[in-house]
């Protein structure tokens, strides 16, 4: 039986789901971002217990087909952004069509209706979140980050970063350095 889980975007989320399933005596075949394949069919009671366990971890069991598709789109984009080996150079509509086997126009309209932003805006927000991580946790300079994240230039990355966060990447890095000094 396939289950769909909202807000499941990291390895830590996968661990929380595995633990919830284990606690309820359910056996999984695969636990992926946003999807779980379990061996058993859930009873009404088990479904409610799983909902509660997942909610305790900040996750949500999904049953709405439109919401499930939106979550699948989000997960595809998150995976695309986090794969730094060229995935961002792929055309987004083609990538989503191939991954989800759905018409891109339908997915784009549904996503905008449900989320209140476009798929393109969501992609930009995810790229900026990943860039923040790279600024804070990696040894890459802004030129290298711009290249990895498929920006045409550091100026393009900086303009988009500032538009989304209100800070330049350089200032954001300075904030990180100030925080580290305060901790020491």
Short structural summary:
The chain has 184 residues and is α+β, with helices and mostly antiparallel strands. Helix content is 64%, strand content 9%.
Explain what the structure shows.
The chain has helices at 11-23, 44-56, 65-82, 92-100, 104-115, 119-137, 142-148, 154-165, 169-183; strands spanning 2-6, 28-32, 35-38, 60-62. It has 184 residues and is an alpha+beta fold. It folds into two domains: 2-63, Alpha-Beta Plaits (2-Layer Sandwich), CATH 3.30.70; 67-183, Arc Repressor Mutant, subunit A. The chain has a four-stranded antiparallel β-sheet with strand order 2-3-1-4, with helices on both faces. Helix 3 (65-82) crosses helix 4, helix 3 packs parallel to helix 6 (119-137) and helix 6 packs across helix 8 (154-165).
Name the features.
single chain, 184 residues, alpha+beta, Alpha-Beta Plaits, Arc Repressor Mutant, subunit A, 2 domains, 4-stranded antiparallel beta sheet
Task: Give the topology.
Layout: E1 2-6, H1 11-23, E2 28-32, E3 35-38, H2 44-56, E4 60-62, H3 65-82, H4 92-100, H5 104-115, H6 119-137, H7 142-148, H8 154-165, H9 169-183
Helix pairs in contact: 3-4, 3-5, 3-6, 6-8
């Amino acid at each position: 039986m396939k289950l769909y889980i909202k807000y499941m975007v990291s390895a830590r989320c996968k661990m929380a789901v595995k633990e919830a399933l284990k606690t309820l005596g359910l056996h999984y075949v695969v636990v992926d971002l946003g999807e779980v394949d379990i061996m058993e069919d859930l009873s009404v009671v088990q479904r409610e217990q799983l909902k509660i366990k997942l909610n305790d971890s900040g996750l949500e069991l999904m049953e709405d087909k439109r919401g499930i598709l939106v979550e699948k789109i989000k997960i595809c984009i998150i995976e695309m952004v986090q794969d730094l080996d060229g995935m961002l150079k792929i055309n987004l509509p083609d990538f989503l069509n191939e991954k989800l086997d759905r018409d891109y126009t339908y997915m784009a309209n549904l996503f905008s209706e449900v989320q209140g932003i476009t798929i393109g805006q969501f992609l930009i927000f995810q790229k900026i979140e990943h860039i923040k991580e790279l600024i804070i946790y990696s040894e890459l300079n802004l030129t290298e980050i711009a290249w990895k994240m498929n920006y045409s230039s550091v100026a393009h990355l900086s303009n988009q970063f500032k538009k989304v966060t209100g800070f330049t990447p350089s200032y954001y890095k300075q904030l990180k350095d100030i925080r580290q000094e305060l901790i020491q």
